[in-house]
């Protein structure tokens, strides 16, 4: 989403979307901690009172940003998979797709750390907001996992041997790439130069793919 310049007053009925755009920009710049409703309002040139007509508070705005971040993370994974060259061997093609999805996941975390952190933040409920109704986990929250799970199912269709414990493999792969991403962003691996970082990423992805044969 493009940034919306400050100093403008919006009367076109799309203030909610303008606030979301500003909030996404804030998250991109500094992670979920930067997402503040008053700051988003300032950026689009309206009063906080006007912003509160569209959002109950910071928590609701941050949940909207989180959903956006989850969607663009999954989009990045799909783009990475689409760039992966095919293979005549269906099993090899399926393994390459799995590795590419994982590579897209880690690549998004490294390239967009603010949005990546926002994708997994846990907003506090707003004190004045109505209780959230109980509902199933929304699709964006698990879309990244769904892509990985479907990649393992693709291995099955390609004829790869999948033992009974395989249903947990998608979650295991997600754990591996998520843990690696956090180490690269906030852990000791953040100090690695680009070449060594790429080597660690590719080694981890090779372990994820090779693990499909060992489970």
Structure description:
- With 215 residues, the chain is an all-alpha fold.
- Helices cover 66% and strands 0% of the residues.
- Helix 5 (90-111) crosses helix 6.
- The protein is elongated.
- The N and C termini lie far apart (41 Å).
Q: Biggest β-sheet, characterized?
A: none
How many individual β-strands?
0
Shape estimate: elongated
Order of helices and strands: HHHHHHHHH
Q: Can you count the helices?
A: 9
Secondary-structure topology with pairs:
Blueprint: H1 15-30, H2 37-44, H3 48-52, H4 58-83, H5 90-111, H6 113-119, H7 139-157, H8 169-186, H9 194-214
Helix pairs in contact: 1-2, 1-4, 1-6, 4-5, 4-6, 4-7, 5-6, 5-7, 5-8, 5-9, 7-8, 8-9
Structure characteristics:
215 residues; mainly alpha; 9 helices; elongated; disordered N terminus
Describe the structure concisely.
By secondary structure, this protein is mostly helical. The chain is built from nine helices and no strands. The longest helix is centred in the N-terminal third of the chain and has 26 residues, at about 60-85.
